[in-house]
Amino acid sequence: METSDTRKAETGCCGAPATPTDSGREVRRPVHREDVRDFYGRAAEAPQAELCCPTAYDPNELSHIPEAVLAISYGCGSPMAQAAPGPGETVVDLGAGGGIDCFIAARHVGPTGTVIGVDMTDEMLQKATAHAAPVAERLGYTVTSFRKGYLEAIPVDDGSADLVTSNCVVNLSTDKPRVFAEIHRVLRHGGRFVIADIVADRPVPEALRRDGELWGACIAGALTERDFCAAAEAAGFYGITLERDYLWKTVEGIRFYSTTFRGYRYDKAPDCLFQGQTAVYLGPGRSFTDDDGHTYLRGEVVEVCSDTAAKLQAVPYRGRFAVGDPDRPAEPCC
To answer: Which one in 11, 122, 240, 327 has a CA-CA gap of 20 to 30 Å to 162?
Structure first.
């Protein structure tokens, strides 16, 4: 791939003026949200094959979606298919672009569900909104809407979503901790995120991070897998898992992978009690430490509170623990 060192020096990232130094080398300014918005505004008007998702969608998922939507479907995975939204669920797709993942979700949630696509690019929103009507006609119902907004300020009510997805979008934000805080805010208790994104096998150096074209191409803004998980954990998510899908690109010796992440929102109940519940970790592995810092040795009986007992019986922990019934009067915990 062409890098910042090989591009012409007359212009900076995304067409922004570059500042020459005494040596004649350009100094790029930090990337801003407007750079990314302009980048994808152009991509909405003139499809760019190099940005298109290399993951093959199931043709059965696409039969109700216009071909024009597929031409501007930029991403690195298939989070909606992997998330498997259920009938009646409320789904929020961040960086919805032309709407492909929203339209896929609409078929899954059915006429009683809700799908909200969020994007900051006017050109993408216009495309998605224009295609919502033919999609609804083919499905026989309308459940999809699109809103203008930013990942750092999602225009969705608190605790209203069952599922938040994004397809190669979180890496485009310059404030990822805020993005995860917002995702946590809009999810309800028990809700989850499923995010396909690009991650790097080592921290991306500042020289690449200032390259707007590489940022728009989902390279310069990538976190490592460890940092991605840490940001989600800091926002309060539980049960974070990752699945590395494939090598996306190698730039200046750094490998960039498409990876799918999952995480869950679990709120501690105000009446959390010790009621005699117990949990036994079944494996695999000799031990397991949960996101609250509790360690369970395989096969060892551990007393847990009502809140933890409920969590261990839900996804993604379900099946890895045997949770016992209460056998004594309740007493306050926490």
So the answer is: 122
Q: How large is the C-alpha radius of gyration of the chain? A: 22
Residue 249 has what DSSP assignment? Answer: E
pLDDT one-digit tens code per residue, 139-181: 999 999 999 999 999 999 999 999 999 998 999 898 999 999 9
Task: Look at residues 117, 103, 25, 27 and name the one whose alpha carbon lies nearest to residue 61.
Answer: 103
Handedness of CA 97, 99, 105, 110 (dihedral sign): positive
Which range scores top for mean pLDDT: 47-61, 212-226, 302-316?
302-316
CA distance 131 to 306: 47
Query: Beta partners for 246?
Result: 258
pTM: 0.83
- Reading the block at residue 41, the tokens are 């505004």
> What is 194-212 written as a DSSP string?
EEEEEEESSPPPHHHHT-H
Q: Give CA–CA dist 291/288, Å, rounded.
A: 10
Q: How far are the Cα atoms of 101, 221, 228 from residue 176, in angstroms, in the given order?
A: 21, 10, 9
Q: Please name the amino acid found at residue 266.
A: Y
**CB 304 within 8 Å of CB 273:** no
